[in-house]
Amino acid sequence: MKITVIGAGNMGSAFVSQLVRAGHQVSVTARNGAKAAQVAAANTGTSAVGISGAARGADAVILATGFADAVNALQAVGDLKGKVVIDITNPLTADYMGLTIGHSTSAAEEIAKAIPGAEVVKAFNTVFAQVLAEGPDFGNGRKVEVFVASDSERAKQTAVAIAESIGFGVVDAGGLKNARYLEPLAGLNIYLGYGAGLGTAIAPTWIRKA
């Protein structure tokens, strides 16, 4: 699959590494072009591309920026009509211990409104960057689960295929409005992992009977 990753921070670089290992054709772009180039150089076969037109030819675009930068970043990469956009953002406060929006909307819904025509799917927002980088195996046969929420079945199946290709389990979380629940869940993860000092291994694994 041809995938463009927007963002070269901890999540963006972890995505690039995992996607390349899984055999995807990956491009990375970022506001800081030098940082995108560093990520590409560390992952053989990855292309660092300029922001303008970065989405051209991609089967999916992974949005790995902060929520505050999300809309501007998506608008900069070109025409996203009919494109699958995987939104991993969380609308966090400056101290990472709260959310700036919620209850009646979500970051994912606001992004979808701002980028009409894009097929937005919420996924990976509850996964810590360290967990993504290290891989989904939690030990004892358990795998970290990725929640996937979208109003587009095609977008949902694309996100599922990407998650499964890099070894994660998947939970269908319904429509995009359910991002209103997934984003607070990410906030709880962050509090437990960092605020309460329990570490990134606290990220939930949803154990289902075989």
From TrEMBL:
Residues 2-91 form the Pyrroline-5-carboxylate reductase catalytic N-terminal domain. Pfam families: F420_oxidored. Keywords: Oxidoreductase. The keyword Oxidoreductase applies. This is NAD(P)-binding domain-containing protein. The lineage of its organism: Bacteria, Pseudomonadati, Pseudomonadota, Betaproteobacteria, Burkholderiales.
